[in-house]
Each structure stands twice: as structure tokens, then as C-alpha cells.
């Protein structure tokens, strides 16, 4: 069996890292696999990016052209929306290859167009890393629309934007006639698939992200803090996300309110808030806590150091299909505090590996942080539980076995729809 994986990148961004981990665990299980990307960052010889200067220039040009079109249609470019309209040669390359299965991941960024996806004639497995495949142009459908499904996609929530989203959803319905085999990473994402007319009748299986707990593991805290320049005497709270403080979906504004409330209850002089995920530091001078900013981290070693510097992690996201930073934190022995939303409800086991708070309640979020700051014994106990659960649930061999069962089912049934 030969499987070709498609992903915009192999290392840059949470979905890219997840795609690489899935491809890697499947390949190590014995499946002949290649990962094609638009932006390559690893040294894996089976990860294939644009060839030569011309290939890289064309890849960058596609992204620039898409941004221009999005600016015309929507009024501005937005990292949380993708059009995927520029033609590519992926469908013909795949159809004329000897690959048995096409495994799609996060393929936005104009890697492959909506129409080209529909022109692939081989069986498709699609791991849904966000909501783009089931929406029009949104990576995540706004909560205001999810809470009132009847207003999506026709109501004028964001007047022109919703019309564009509706138009692109119709475009997907037009070109995606042949069912694909969908993989979700959480029950929440499965429920989102069930609400759409586009994919609700397609086969769906839930498989969480793999995580190599021999790589992601507790390390010496003293050494980790020394490496990142963090004071040894501090209690460290970790927050990390691509886009960090600027992405409303990641909820840094909610965390800020919680920390401000926390300052009324306890002395935060001995607390450091460790931030990773942004390429540049923005001022958060209103926060009554010391900040330590690492910038963007994409390699496993640096990320491991960040997790192992911390005493607990906060994930105040408004929406998450899975919650990969929470799972990485758990593998490194950190308890996680998060809102009870999306895939985080399955990654974090409330009261066992961390604490889950009712959605967007900044008062209760502050109380949860306080409870773990003042109760060191409980904090350590949750972290130990988190490590044990990570080893049990996210073992790459176990995840690869589930993907292999899916691949074998498809090929044995000759699922060419």
C-alpha cells in the first residue's frame, strides 16, 4: 500500500506538526508514505516541498495572489480564512501516480484548490484539523453562528463576509460529489461534521493526534529554566499559541481578565507568565504579572524546554478542534486549565489531569488558576496523572494501527466512489 499525504507544511503551525506526526507514525508502522508540502522545514527525505527556486517562487506567488483576491472579496486578508481557488496540478499528479490512497491534512494556503480536490479520483482520507472543510472560507465558524445555526450561512452576521462564505460553501458542494473518508480528532469535531449538509453522510472515524512520549516528556526543570533564562524561584504559568495574544480564538484577552482578577486575591510577585507562539513581543503592560516571551518556537527541543519550565499551563481558547498544546503539556507532566469547549474536553480530564471551567467564565478561570497555585501537592498530582494518561492514549503505534485499519478497509473494499 502506498499513501501520499498532503499538508501545507510539516513543521510551521500546530496543524502542520500534527500532520507530520500522523504521517511519521504511519510510515514507521510500515506503510509506504510520502508527505508533500508547500513549505518544508524538516530534514525528512520523504517530505517533499517545492523543487528548486522556481518551485518556491511559484508557491509564494500563489499565496500572494490569494491574499489579493481575499482583500478584494472580503475587504482584508485574514489568517483565519482561506479561499483555495488558484488551480494546481495536484489532481493530475495524484491520479497519474501509483499511490493507493490520498491523505489530506491542512491544505489551505492555496496548496490545492477546492476544484482540484474534487478532481482527485483516488480514495481520499481527510484528517480535519479545523473547520475549513465543512465551512465556506472560515477555519473556524464563529461561535455566534454555531450558537444559532439557523442564521448560518444566510444571515448578515458580517454582511459581505457571510455571503462570501455561503458562496464558497456552495462551491464545495458543487465540486465535492464523491464521498471522502473523514477523520476527526474529537467528538466535538464529529458533531460539527454532522451539522453540515456537505459531509454529514460521509464516513467518519475519530482518531486523536499521536504524540511520542519518549520525546515529549518531563525533563529537569532547573536545566530548562536555565536554558530559557527564567528565574528558578518563580512559579511559571505557560500560555502558547500560534498568533498568541493577537488571535481572539486563543482567548488571551480572557486570560488577561482572569489574571487581573487573580491579582485582587493573591500576590503575583512570584509568578511568571511564560508566552510562546508569536514572532514579536507586543506590550501587555496592563498585566499585573511578570512576562517572559520566547517568541515563535517550532522545534521539539525548544518547545519541550518551554513546557518543562512551567508549573502549569492555561489554554483559554474559545474554540479548539483538539487542543494539541494541552496534550503536549500533559505529556510533559503539566496540569492544564482550560474552558470546557471543543476537543479540550477530551484532552483534559477534569479533576484528574487538569481543570475545566465553564466556557468563557473569567472569574472561575481565575479561581482555577489560584487553586493550583496555592495547592502545590494537587498541582503535582494532576501533572503525574496527565503524564500517565498521555502515555496510554496518544502512543504513535496505537494511532498508526487505527489509521492502518482505515486504510486497509478502504483498499479492501476498493472504495472508488
Architecture overview:
The protein is an alpha/beta fold. The protein has helices at 14-28, 52-74, 90-95, 114-118, 143-146, 159-175, 187-194, 221-228, 252-262, 300-309, 324-331, 344-347, 362-374, 376-393, 396-412, and strands spanning 2-9, 32-39, 47-48, 101-104, 124-127, 181-184, 204-206, 235-240, 271-276, 290-293, 312-315, 336-339, 354-357.
List its salient traits.
417 residues, alpha/beta, Rossmann fold, 2 domains, seven-stranded parallel sheet, six-stranded parallel sheet, 15 helices, 13 strands, 40% helix
Number of domains: 2
| Unreliable runs | 150-160
For the record, give the distance between the C-alpha atoms at the N and C termini, rounded to a whole number.
19 Å
In spatial order, strands of the major sheet run 3-2-1-4-5-6-7
CATH architecture tag of the largest domain: 3-Layer(aba) Sandwich
Short description:
The protein contains 15 helices and 13 strands.
Q: How is the topology of this model organized?
A:
Elements: E1 2-9, H1 14-28, E2 32-39, E3 47-48, H2 52-74, H3 90-95, E4 101-104, H4 114-118, E5 124-127, H5 143-146, H6 159-175, E6 181-184, H7 187-194, E7 204-206, H8 221-228, E8 235-240, H9 252-262, E9 271-276, E10 290-293, H10 300-309, E11 312-315, H11 324-331, E12 336-339, H12 344-347, E13 354-357, H13 362-374, H14 376-393, H15 396-412
Parallel strand pairs: 1-2, 1-4, 2-3, 4-5, 5-6, 6-7, 8-9, 8-11, 9-10, 11-12, 12-13
Amino acid at each position: 500500500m502506498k499513501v501520499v499525504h498532503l499538508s501545507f507544511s510539516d513543521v510551521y503551525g500546530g496543524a502542520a506538526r500534527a500532520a507530520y506526526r500522523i504521517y511519521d507514525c504511519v510510515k514507521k508502522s510500515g506503510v509506504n508514505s510520502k508527505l508533500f508540502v508547500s513549505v518544508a522545514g524538516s530534514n525528512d527525505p520523504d517530505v517533499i516541498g517545492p523543487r528548486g527556486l522556481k518551485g518556491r517562487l511559484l508557491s509564494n506567488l500563489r499565496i500572494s495572489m490569494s491574499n489579493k483576491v481575499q482583500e478584494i472579496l472580503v475587504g482584508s486578508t485574514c489568517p483565519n480564512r482561506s479561499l483555495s481557488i488558484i488551480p494546481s496540478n495536484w489532481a493530475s499528479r495524484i491520479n497519474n501516480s501509483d499511490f493507493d490512497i490520498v491523505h489530506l491534512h491542512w491544505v489551505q494556503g492555496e496548496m490545492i484548490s477546492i476544484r482540484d480536490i474534487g478532481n482527485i479520483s483516488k480514495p481520499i482520507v481527510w484528517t480535519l484539523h479545523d473547520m475549513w472543510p465543512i465551512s465556506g472560507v472560515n477555519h473556524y465558524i464563529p461561535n455566534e453562528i454555531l450558537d444559532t445555526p439557523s442564521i448560518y450561512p444566510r444571515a448578515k452576521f458580517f454582511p459581505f463576509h457571510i455571503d462570501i462564505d455561503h458562496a464558497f460553501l456552495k462551491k464545495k458542494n458543487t465540486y465535492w460529489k464523491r464521498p471522502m473518508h473523514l477523520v476527526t480528532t474529537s467528538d466535538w469535531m464529529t458533531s460539527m461534521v454532522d451539522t453540515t449538509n456537505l459531509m454529514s453522510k460521509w464516513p467518519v472515524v475519530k482518531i486523536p493526534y499521536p504524540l511520542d512520549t519518549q520525546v515529549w516528556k518531563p525533563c529537569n526543570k532547573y536545566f530548562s529554566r536555565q536554558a530559557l533564562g527564567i528565574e528558578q524561584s518563580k512559579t511559571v504559568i505557560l500560555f502558547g499559541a500560534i498568533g498568541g495574544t493577537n488571535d481572539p480564538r486563543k482567548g488571551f484577552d480572557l486570560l488577561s481578565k482572569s489574571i487581573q482578577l487573580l491579582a485582587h486575591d493573591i500576590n503575583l510577585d512570584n509568578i511568571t507568565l511564560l508566552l510562546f507562539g508569536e514572532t514579536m513581543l507586543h506590550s501587555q503592560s496592563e498585566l499585573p504579572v511578570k512576562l517572559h516571551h520566547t517568541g515563535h518556537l517550532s522545534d521539539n527541543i525548544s518547545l519541550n524546554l518551554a513546557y518543562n519550565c512551567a508549573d502549569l499551563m492555561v489554554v483559554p481558547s474559545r474554540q479548539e478542534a483538539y487542543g494539541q498544546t494541552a496534550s503536549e503539556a500533559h505529556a510533559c507532566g503539566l496540569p492544564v486549565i482550560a474552558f470546557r469547549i471543543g476537543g479540550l474536553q477530551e484532552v483534559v480530564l477534569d479533576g484528574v489531569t487538569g481543570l475545566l471551567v465553564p466556557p468563557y467564565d473569567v472569574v472561575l478561570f481565575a479561581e482555577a488558576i489560584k487553586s493550583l497555585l496555592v495547592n502545590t501537592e494537587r498541582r503535582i498530582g494532576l501533572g503525574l496523572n496527565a503524564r500517565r494518561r498521555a502515555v496510554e492514549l496518544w502512543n504513535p503505534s496505537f494511532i498508526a494501527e487505527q489509521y492502518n485499519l482505515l486504510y486497509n478497509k478502504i483498499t479492501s473494499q476498493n472504495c472508488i466512489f
